[in-house]
Amino acid sequence: MQDEDLCLGSDGSDPTVFSGWPDAGCWHGDKEYPHTWCDFGCAKMYLDPTNKFADSAPDRWTWEGVDLASCCSMDKGFLREKAGCSCNVKHDRNVSSCPPSPYYTNR
Hints:
Elements: H1 29-32, H2 37-47, H3 68-71, E1 72-73, E2 77-78
Antiparallel strand pairs: 1-2
């Protein structure tokens, strides 16, 4: 078996196999991982304080509208119980305008 055999269909030959990234604005981390997305945002904030990876899929790696600076604790993650801390991310695109999960257009 060769490495390329591990990705059967990713060359577009099988329309039931998807590869690549979801369409822009369609993947919402806070909806896919509602109990941990903002904890992940806190970890990202502490591990990447200079936003080195900010331009890497900014429509997917987003916590827009969530006050991570005030709602994160280094030892506890996202402080859901703190007043004003809610993991409600603002998205530019509503998922209802996207293709079905996993949100890929068959390209």
